[in-house]
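quick one, 624 residues, struct below
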Amino acid sequence: MNASLAPSAAPRPRPPVDPNRAIRAGHNKEYPREVWWLVASFIALVSLVQLASWVISKLSSGPTPAPKEGKDAEAGVTVRPRRFSWRRLPLAILNAYRVVAFRWTLQVGQSYTLNFAEVFVTVVYIVALFVWEFVNTTTVSGHKLDVTYWGGRAGAIATSQFPLVTVLGTKNNILAYITSISYDKLNYIHRMTARVVFVLLWVHGGAKIAHLPSPAYEEWFIRVGLLALVAFTLLILVSLRPVRAEVYEIFYFTHFLTVLIMLLGGYFHANEVRVGSYVWPCFLVWGLDRALRLGRLVYFNHLYFGFSSNASRLDASVELLSPHFVRLHLKRPPHFKWTPGQTAFLTMPGVSGFPLEAHPFTIASVDARYQLDGVKTPRPPAMEKLQEDPGSDPAPYWKELTFLINVREGFTRKLAAVAERGEKVKVLVDGPYGFSPNLDNDDAVVLIAGGSGVSFTLSTFLGVLSHVQSGRSKCKKLVFIWSIREASHIEWISKALTQALELAPNGIEISIRIFITSGNSIPAPQEREWNEDDSVHSSEGTAVGRSRPSSLLNFSAVQVSQGRPDIPALLRDEVEVNTGRLSVTVCGSQGIARACRAALRIPISTVLSGGPSVVLHVESFGYA
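---
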């Protein structure tokens, strides 16, 4: 028979094409992009709101009128008459937004508080990601919430958020500059987004573990994915606030190692399904942040790295002020500039368990740009003598770096031991970080601190006085409130405050209120004669002598009281007697911050009736 006439072999039947596969692939590619559009839109909205708030504040910060003033016979304070005006409606709406967003809070446990802005961002982020996770998960045959749809999609959406989590966790944070929110305040968003991503990854991992056949675990990319998930789980456990606060050093190193394992394992796992493009940018962001920090470390501490004979001049003096506080003082690198309230990361190889371990502390002193006219800076030999004298207070000299450090466990406990031995330490400075609140347009400024929180408020106090003296600030009233345990703590900053009061410019009311919470007796001021012609005006309407008193307590602007401060009453009094713009800056415990927020939930009618526009700045206290 002719071969050409032989019947041809029947073609092999093709395996049936799963129509769901193409749909799943399309969703896994498109939905992470849509999530990013939402995130980018929200960042843009926050930036616009911050810009609008700044513009409204500028437009509303014109010269404060000088109406007829009357004296309250009982209170002995100046009372400015007020008048209702609908023109203040935009300002009243802005204040209402501040009250709702930042002063209404949700308390979590005994030591943690979220404001409504943080609650709103958290809820929106969680809802958005889980809506995209479970929407359109019905198969073409009608099976709803099919695991093959949402199981893989959870991994794709979680992986897409890695760059956001990484950026929020860096110190050189581009989002901080876009939104004008400092890196330490964005740290909550960093932790929140990381935990939401962690849940999504376990949704992804749980779905796969439950449905993958046993041979699939022989695949290398499955194994590295599981390794990354285990590392992420360990990281979440050690990042919980109680663990982080008690053993910060363990968290510090665990964070570094587990993030590295998670990103490497996550990249190779995700790249197998073509979503690795979301992971590799994290290495660039992290590497750039580390490169910038390393560059600043070398730049500001080049004498150490250059093995200069003058390197020992950068060694820091450490003084044990009390069993719970240490004052660290070091010569400022000439090219290191900072503004009041900023922080610096300090690396002390001779104290830390790991040579490159860095810890953030608020700078209690101010840069030379904020030096008040009339300050006499000691010459280098005199400064060295001051540094050697453990009883001296170098803070008033404005040109040095001074830190007040709360002694806890670990690193700070080791630093306290060094101070007790009277030794000096080598310190590498990296910074400055964070944003200083702009108080130049405020008519009245209230600064509230508890314990070591005075590091922030002291530098802010000196900065405000400097700007008033130079004409850059319109502040007419400055209130400094400090709550401390022992009366002896006053000596920590007494010389800085004494010199500031002596050189304070005319035309500003200054009130310093110090509250001693222990049962110790209040120190009595030392008597002396005063020169009434050489004075500045105090908040009580009395004269504050310019000639140097023997004690801070000799100034009539300084009041020392026994017991805890009644913060709500103090702030209500300031709201009642002030007009224009009033700012309240607080750095202390969660209890102090909660009291300030509650006291400043002023109604919209107060602003419409001529009351002050109130701005509240709350600084973090303790471990982030």
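The first helix runs from residue 19 to 59.
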